[in-house]
Records
---
Amino acid sequence: MVEKYITDFSIAQICRSGQCFRMRERSDGSYEVLADNRYLTLEQEGERCVFSCDEQEFETFWKGYFDLEADYRFYKEKLNPRDIYLTTAAACGGGIRILRQDLWEMIVSFLISQQNHIARIRRCIRNICENYGERRVGKDGTVYYAFPAPEALAQLDEDALKACNLGYRSKYVVRAARSVVSGEVCLEKVRMLSYKKAREELLKLFGVGEKVADCVCLFALHHLEAFPVDTHIRQVLEVHYKRGFPHRRYKGFQGVMQQYIFYYELLKEK
DNA sequence: CGCCAGGGGAGCT
DNA sequence: AGCTCCCCTGGC
């Protein structure tokens, strides 16, 4: 167990922000996080966070995963105070961090996300992990399943994942897995590329369009200049930014602003 | 039962 | 760039 005091961090907000589908709030108010074949529980009260790992694992993995080395005050200071909408959104989701998630997992997750609800996306991913991922046992005895490697999914029939509730998205995932396994799209290479080049490379995958590529760039590759535009964001742009979103002002970290907006819109739904 | 929308994308023109 | 299909589920 390690105890940390962290500002601009809210596990509850991150969990609800829709960038991560394998994180959940447990009935006792603590959070469970599955990432990189690891299992973590996290309790938070104000700025006090208790991670269920040792200091070394925190330093070498979770600190980077939650992007805790970055100072998000920098992004908030750049906010245009006259932009009431964005200022309000950032105030509501000020504890959000852009996670550094696994590349392959994000590709699959956002392939599944198209024309889909968050609750169902979570179910789909859980189904895939339980059916094709390796079974693991956490330090506290909890059984969980790792996210299946491309090799495990590449050998499936194109329609096999319909059994995991993917519907017509099944063939997107299987074909993408095959492209990765064959080396047509090299993930190690994608990791080294700039935002533009990485995006271009991801677009070669069947089923990956501009929105999905941007989500992968933002949530896996940490290219904060990626600004995924989905139906929700499009509506916001139409209502609040008729003359265009001020990309110039937020150059290099538009993705952080996108998350504030997205979270705020999700929040208002309820 | 029908209708429609839910964090799109492919394949056309 | 804009259009038409694609065609899975869950909610109403």
---
Amino acid sequence: MFSVTAKDLSSKARAGILQTPHGEIGTPAYIIVGTSAEVRTVTPEDLLSAGTQIVIANAYHLAVREEHEKIRQKGGLHIAMGWNNPLMTDSGGFQVFSLGAGRVYGASKIGFFPTEHNPLMMPEKSMALVGEEGIAFSDRERGSHMVLTPEKSIRIQEALGADIIYALDECTSPFHDYEYTKASLDRTHRWAIQCLEVKSRKDQQLWGIIQGGYFRDLREKSAYFLTRHEFEGIGIGGAMGTSKQHMREIIDWIYPSFPKNKPRHLLGIGNPVDILNAVEQGIDLFDCVIPTREARHGSLWTTCGRINIRNSRFKDDNSKIDEECRCATCQTITRKQLRTMFCDGDLSAGRLATIHNISFFNDLMRKIRKAIQDSKYSEFKAGFILRFREANS
RNA sequence: GCACGGGUGGCAGAGCGGUCAAAUGCACUAGACUGUAAAUCUAGCGCCCUAUGGGCUACGCAGGUUCGAAUCCUGCCCCGUGCA
């Protein structure tokens, strides 16, 4: 199912091929996020022409309004989305964080947290409550309520029918102390086993997720545990500490447990620099909302750094968004034109920006693969970052 | 001509004696966004300074009342509606 095809000589970076019933994925790869069975603003044709290899949708968001049943009746996610290429679904475990601590404190997976607050002391503000059996989600505004158990998550993901599915986990946050994170980790492991036991479709790969926050022994324990069960791929999830250095350490801690022949997915990461660093640490897969969300918000990624296309300095800029980019957007429109569209509230601006950003990230991964195959990864990385940051500052 | 109603920051539109450099929305200027409750959110938006504070000029124009006026009074100039 996964094979390494090339290794960089001066780092842990590797290139490989991940096989699925809907096609192969060359790794390192970027998984484009399509939470609700669509990548916002963009068509499957757009995705393909932007070099997309694989898309990830979300079990919670598709099940909270019973959408997964309709998708099952249609014949599955591939058909419902019009995407006859590799697909992945997330279990819903991340929503413990995003609808809990993330929502209550506006926190993200990496970075500063106001540690004087502890979401455990304010459970009424959270939309996700965790118990031994599973997660209880409630949305008072929308009046929705649902319970996600390991088995339920698998059933939903089997109804959706993605090529790769995830075991239900609990994504903790840096708010949680060692004791909580440890208890949560043991629970996530029990859930992971339940998912393995309950899984019935043979055409889907089940992957497990390493948790443990920024606690070395917990991360090592989790990595050891998960890699010794029959998961076909390994996700690295949860709180990544409060700095990029912490994330780096976490990956280093768990690296010794990684089986060489299984793909490693750093969930929810990230931006180009994070990716370049993590690839060097042996990571194969990434996914993040950055390309799509930021595109809709007017942030465009280029080889010379990120730009906000709405800035007035692009008012008369007749150059391409990125001179090196070959995406459909860059072939047809200038910075000035795209800015005008954004400022006019033209909805197709979001689509054009999304096409470009997706293309940029897919292209970055393509270059990374090439550099690894040529065993010039460190050189490539240094050159890319130099240019990326130089022009951006 | 008479009678009402109204003239507020780039625009729309609150305020109707002090807490008003003036609500709110739009526009504008920046910023944020890392397993998507995000086509969203945050901040700034009269001028100047020794800038989590201080000064100056402002609510059609010109006067007046008052300790104090965008807010009250008088005249003038515009705009809308009705009646001649």
